[in-house]
Specification:
Length: 172
């Protein structure tokens, strides 16, 4: 009886913990994030707004992943009377992520990629593709991860885009 109980416990632990461990090593992931995006033009416009991002990707191993994301940077409003314009920024992002685990649950990461961006304001706008990079940290609990990150892009030299984001990730 004791041997049967021990085997049953070991089988149960193996069945329920193996998917969580495997999910941390490699596989697909998806998530959402919310934060603040600041847009800064050299022409005197500076503003920020609530932004959101949806993303998905593939984790090759514990250290490297690739990710695609959509960013809606919100509608930044200029603080000065002469720059009361509203600037709406959006972008599609492709990036590689290098992650350094610091224990079982905590990690730090860096990202490097490209953003296909667009901004518009009062009948004018611009678009392009430029480098996108950032740093962040993550706290994992099984297949879920909570992320805090800062991302940056120089949108064609003017404007600059800075995003602070809190996100949630689910690993499949």
């Amino acid at each position: 009886m004791r041997k049967t109980t021990t085997i049953a416990i070991l089988v149960t632990l193996t069945v329920f913990t193996t998917p969580a461990v495997a999910a941390e090593e490699h596989g697909w992931h998806a998530g959402v994030g919310i934060g603040s995006t600041r847009v800064d033009f050299n022409r005197g416009f500076e503003g920020d707004d609530v932004s959101y991002s949806v993303f998905g990707g593939y984790r090759f191993n514990r250290y490297f992943a690739a990710e695609l994301a959509y960013l809606d940077g919100g509608k930044a409003h200029g603080p000065r009377v002469q720059t009361r314009a509203t600037v709406h920024t959006t972008g599609a992002i492709a990036s590689g992520i290098a992650e350094l685990p610091l224990g079982d649950r905590f990690s730090v990461f860096g990202r490097l990629g490209a953003i296909a961006w667009e901004w518009e304001s009062v009948g004018v706008g611009d678009d392009g593709i430029d480098p996108h990079y950032g740093i962040g940290s993550g706290f994992s609990l099984g297949q879920a991860q909570l992320r805090l990150e800062v991302n940056y892009a120089d949108l064609g030299g003017d404007p600059l885009l800075l995003q602070l984001m809190l996100g949630g990730v689910w690993r499949f």
